[in-house]
Write a structure and sequence with these properties.
The complex is a heterodimer of chains A (about 450) and B (about 625). With about 450 residues, chain A is α/β, with parallel strands linked by helices. Chain A is built from ten helices and 21 strands. Chain A has helices spanning about 10-15, 125-130, 155-170, 185-195, 220-230, 325-330, 350-360, 380-390, 400-415, 415-425, and strands at about 25-30, 35-40, 50-55, 60-65, 70-75, 95-100, 110, 115-120, 140-145, 175-180, 200-205, 235-245, 250-255, 260, 270, 280, 285-290, 310-315, 335-340, 365-370, 395. In chain A, helix 3 crosses helix 4 (about 185-195), helix 4 (about 185-195) runs parallel beside helix 9 (about 400-415) and helix 9 (about 400-415) runs antiparallel to helix 10. The longest helix of chain B is centred in the middle third of the chain and has 24 residues, at about 250-270.
């Protein structure tokens, strides 16, 4: 089979003429030199004027097709069957059973240095080999639920994850790890927190900020942390387990409803907002920090409430915000709007008529703050008071993303607006912090 | 002198030169390229060997990981950002670096790659925060001409420099991030043969060719050479990180002798009827034999609950201490080898009884191993894991030695020898750096750079020589030195004689440095002030060394303070005349008696008063005139 993935236009045509395929050992004669190597795939976004080969010394180079005089296929492609040398793993049958469910991204990978390809290592034996430490804490089972970039994860995926986790509980797993792309991990952790309300076991969501193919990846340590939480944590609930600093040592276990990705690339991008992490993992041990975490229990018949209604929008207010955006949402049949207002919870008075209309039409309109840290207090300024009068629901210190997800969940579980409002204001899974800590980033305990 | 026939021994030398480029910024971010010592930040990491599709992991890398080595990185504010910390993807590649690399490729007639692809080369010792070095091929082929030799070029690569090693502890290795990401050009020559002196000349010529672009960094540590040295019937021995050019010849010579000595040993093993099957990893635990030992090494090992094992070496008696060439013994090579695995060395039967190990203990070990008189043994001690790994390495080494010279990576010693550093890594593991898209090189860029090809260095040096009236030696020295820029500046901004400036930069500073003082305090701005003061007649040439010395000592921080501190002030012409007149008056009889021959005595007396405050030449001219005047008058 001819495979010329990534090539298009002129370069594809040329390779077609010479009947060569990716992986073939070839010799390319150009007007200035002769190159010998293996034909490599082409990046999708690259031009159609170059052919990429891997030289014997391991380097890739691109050759301009205008220079090419001849391409000779040296031999058939060597079909390399990967031989993985698996070290013997002595599994302790007394260790807790945990399930690793992958939704995308790769927590471990193998590199094919022959082609430069990076392949995910997803099976249990792959993971034991790549990260042998996990066999100290648990017997693992792996399952691939989806393979999605996290920006493509939607409410249907949250539902599927929640149902899958409930199945695992039924099968007797003592903890679950979800591997997830980091971009929308905070939304998923909030969504699962609500969908899995009263969860009997711990669920650890882990990811990596540095790709798993590099020796410096944070993926392995995060996964080990996830396994430790799933296997050993005395508490239940949904948590995000990621690096707590730039160091490869201590991991933070964040409450699923209070965590946010606050940096584009650092490995400690995830932070608990206005609360300390629930726990830390140091040298393989869990150090609990927050009191009042739900206690792990046995409940094989646990039922999730996994429905979400995606007709809720998160709107960030900004100067010159056009109120017709709100009108549009009303017309589209939206059932809720979470506003990310300024400061203590404000939007311009130009929005008042549209907000009134929304509330009249039965939409749930709620207020959070774009400041991220701190809570909305809408009684302080006139604008806030006006908005309260209109019927905007102040969500205190709830994170805007958590508020969005919670509204989606609440509105899928009740048709009654009053019930919905009451549920939105109730602290169900730690989404509200009643006291604002003195420290900007509290490290230990609530304060 | 060389005492071997190059043809006969089949010497092959592969030379790789790594030269830092003098770009303003690093290769993949906008950090400055300079050495920083004020470390405001630090963080720790652990690197994990990634699996390849073939399931192979570099054994040395795996060992490092299992040993649990933690890496601590220290960083300053100016020379590191999140890119160096591997907390942010690389930025766009530095265009200045690409252009410099292409320019060098053009000078060497190398074929520039149409489209460049950045690769990741796995390096897991912590010297790169990512666990790989970013590198790309800029050009292939071409040739370097040195005298009547033409040496083909294999590749010209552009790569990021690694971290600077600060400290090597047992469990923690410390690196600084300042050097990480500095652009390096790597020129790899095809294997050639030549005398050690010729190898050194080739390296020097290549270095000068790079410097002829005026776009490469200078000074110690900005250029590093790697050598791949092999002889007939031997594996390739890589000597990495040679910073001093004048060591190259010595290292080649030592390595040839060492490899010949190993071949000699190899033959001895074969003569004794040994084959590689005679060496295996079967060992015996002998710790009980040493439970009451008076050997402090073994006592300590037992206290730490370390392993003590013995390995039988059949028919090897006296071969461990055999020294076919000074400093080359099998015992020593094996000791260096096991140190990599965290052991202190080996103890072998050729040197026993010794180190507090008694004859009785030796006999017990021999008995336990069932040795005959012609057999030898070695003792290894350390943690279980280290000993097992070291044992594998020892057995592997001996098997390789039967075949010839074992391949390994060695490092240079300050006296021009080499020392084992690590097992030779397998084939380079490389895969594409997907964070940086491939980029085509346009014909226009190559055309534009072709116009910037500098004159050959030989011509540049010749011009230099003629323009400033320097000797051949001084001209070349300045050309090679890190002071070339400040030299060019000083000769154009002052009227001080270029040869004097060159002498101060090349000789005075070296002398001061050799006397143990820190010449890093003498920066460009101090040199500017110094030569300005000299140019303005505020100090004399004789005072230069003294001023530089007290600055290097740290007694003062600038030239003006040095002048004050040394009470240097220049004597005006009138004052000088007065002093000379006074001395002549005081010694009038002498002048009358000896006439012009009294000069030496009087010069001494005058200089005693005016040294450092006026140019000696001026004194002698004036004094000669005055003596002539006076003695004519007296006649």
């Amino acid at each position: 089979m001819v495979n010329l993935s990534g090539y298009r236009g002129d370069s594809l045509k040329l390779l077609g003429e010479y009947r060569v395929s990716i992986g073939d050992p070839i010799i390319i004669e150009t007007d200035k030199a002769i190159y010998e190597g293996i034909l490599m795939p082409r990046y999708e976004f690259a031009d159609d004027q170059h052919i990429v080969i891997k030289l014997k010394n391991g380097y890739n180079i691109g050759i301009n097709i205008k220079r090419i005089k001849n391409i000779i296929k040296k031999s058939e492609k060597e079909e390399l069957i990967p031989i993985i040398q698996l070290p013997p793993i002595s599994l302790d049958k007394n260790l807790p059973k945990v399930s690793i469910i992958s939704t995308g991204g790769t927590i471990a990978s193998r590199i094919d240095y022959r082609t430069g390809g990076v392949h995910p290592a997803l099976s249990a034996s792959d993971l034991y080999t790549a990260i042998p430490e996990i066999s100290k804490y648990a017997q693992i089972d792996t399952e691939i639920l989806f393979n999605l970039y996290s920006e493509n994860i939607e409410v249907s995926h949250w539902k599927a994850m929640a149902i899958k986790i409930a199945e695992k509980i039924k099968e007797g797993f003592q903890g679950v790890i979800i591997t997830h792309g980091t971009d929308t991990m905070g939304y998923t952790s909030a969504a699962l927190s609500f969908a899995l309300i009263n969860l009997p076991i711990p669920v650890a969501i882990v990811g990596s900020q540095r790709s798993s193919d590099r020796p410096s990846s944070d993926a392995a340590l995060n996964l080990i942390g996830g396994v430790i939480v799933a296997a050993k944590a005395p508490f239940s609930g949904v948590y995000v387990v990621m690096h707590s600093s730039m160091n490869d040592d201590i991991l933070a276990v964040h409450l699923g409803t209070r965590v946010r990705k606050n940096h584009t690339s650092r490995r400690d991008a995830f932070e608990s907002i206005d609360i300390s992490p629930a726990a830390y993992i140091k040298n393989g041990n869990i150090e609990k920090v927050l009191d009042n975490l739900p206690i792990r229990r046995e409940d094989y018949n646990y039922q999730p409430r996994a429905n979400f209604d995606n007709r809720v929008a998160l709107l960030k207010f900004y100067p010159n915000f056009d109120p017709s955006i709100i009108e549009y949402l009303i017309d589209r049949g939206y059932k809720g709007i979470v506003l990310e207002g300024t400061g203590l919870g404000h939007v311009s008075n130009a929005c008042y008529p549209a907000l009134r209309k929304a509330i009249d039409k039965g939409l749930l309109v709620m207020m959070t703050s774009q400041c991220i840290w701190g809570r909305v207090r809408m009684t302080v300024y006139e604008t806030g008071r006006d908005l309260l009068k209109i019927g905007v629901i102040p969500l205190e210190g709830m994170l805007p993303e958590t508020a969005l997800v919670k509204a989606m969940w609440v509105l899928a579980n009740t048709n009654n607006q009053e019930d919905a409002k009451r549920l939105m204001l109730m602290n169900l899974v730690g989404e509200y912090v009643s006291r604002s800590p003195l420290e900007r980033r509290p490290k230990d305990g609530v304060f | 002198m060389v005492s071997f026939n190059l043809e006969e021994i089949g010497l092959k030398i592969g030379l790789e030169i790594h030269q830092q480029l003098a770009t303003k910024n690093k290769l993949f971010c906008e950090c400055k390229t300079f050495t920083e010592s004020d470390f405001k930040f630090n963080f720790i990491r652990r690197l994990r060997p990634t699996q390849s599709e073939l399931g192979q992991i570099d054994p040395a890398a795996l060992f490092e990981f299992k040993k649990g080595t933690t890496i601590k990185y220290l960083a300053g504010k100016e020379s590191a950002c999140l890119v160096e910390a591997d907390e942010e993807p690389p930025h766009d590649i530095n265009k200045e670096a690409i252009e410099t690399a292409i320019l060098i490729a053009l000078i060497l007639n190398s074929n520039i790659v149409d489209e460049m692809h950045v690769m990741r080369k796995i390096v897991i010792d912590g010297s790169n925060t990512t666990g790989f070095q970013r590198t790309l091929i800029v050009a292939l082929g071409g040739a370097l001409k040195v005298g009547n030799k033409t040496i083909p070029i294999q590749t010209i690569c552009l790569e990021e420099d690694a971290c600077r090693l600060l400290n090597e502890g047992e469990k923690v290795r410390e690196y600084s991030l300042d050097r990480l990401g500095v652009p390096l050009i790597e020129v790899s020559l095809a294997p050639f043969t030549g005398t050690p002196q010729e190898v050194q000349e080739v390296a020097l010529a290549l270095g000068r060719l790079l410097r002829s672009t005026k776009r490469v960094a200078r000074g110690l540590g900005t250029i590093r050479q790697d050598l791949n040295i092999s002889i007939k019937n031997g594996g390739v021995v890589e000597v990495k990180g040679i910073q001093k050019l004048d060591l190259l010849g010595k290292i080649v010579e030592f390595e040839i002798h060492r490899q010949l000595a190993l071949l000699n040993l190899s033959n001895k093993l074969k003569e004794r009827g040994l084959t590689s099957n005679d060496f295996n990893e079967e060992f015996l635990d002998v710790s009980d034999i040493f439970k009451d030992t008076s050997s402090s090494i073994l006592k300590r090992a037992l206290e730490r609950k370390d392993w003590i094992i013995a390995l039988k070496l059949k028919n090897c008696k006296d071969l461990l201490k055999y020294e076919p060439y000074p400093d080359v013994r099998l015992g020593k090579e094996l000791a260096d080898l096991v140190r990599f695995y965290g052991l202190g060395g080996i103890i072998h039967s050729d040197e026993l009884p010794n180190y507090g190990i008694s004859e009785q203990e030796v006999n017990q070990v021999r008995e336990r191993l069932g040795l005959y008189d012609e057999d030898a043994f070695i003792l290894l001690t350390g943690s279980e894991y280290s000993v097992q790994e070291a044992l594998k390495a020892v057995v592997n080494y001996l098997r390789e030695l039967i075949k010839g010279v074992p391949s390994e990576t060695r490092g240079p010693t300050p006296d021009g020898k080499t020392r084992f550093t690590r097992p030779r890594p397998g084939a380079a593991r490389m895969y594409p750096e997907t964070d940086i898209p491939p980029f085509p090189i346009s014909e226009e860029l190559i055309k534009r750079l072709s116009l910037q090809i500098p004159k050959p260095w030989q011509e540049q040096v010749e011009e230099f020589k003629l323009k400033y009236g320097l000797s051949d030696k001084l001209a070349l020295q300045i050309y090679d030195s890190e002071y070339i820029d400040i030299f060019n500046e000083l000769v154009s901004t002052t009227k001080v004689a270029p040869s004097f400036i060159a002498t101060v930069l090349l000789e005075t500073l070296v002398n001061i440095s050799r006397s143990g003082l820190d010449i890093s305090r003498i920066n460009d701005s101090i040199l500017r002030c110094l030569f300005k003061a000299l140019d303005e007649g505020r100090i004399s040439k004789e005072a230069v060394q003294e001023i530089l010395e007290i600055i290097a000592k740290g007694e003062v921080n600038d030239v003006d303070s040095a002048i004050k501190k040394l009470k240097l002030f220049v004597i005006s012409d009138e004052e000088l005349e007065d002093i000379i007149n006074k001395i002549i008056q005081e010694n009038l009889n002498l002048v009358k008696e000896r006439g012009e021959n009294s000069f030496n005595v009087l010069m001494g007396k005058v200089m005693k008063i005016v040294r450092g405050k006026v140019d000696g030449k001026k004194v002698s001219t004036l004094l000669k005139e005055k003596i002539k005047e006076v003695s004519t008058l007296c006649k």
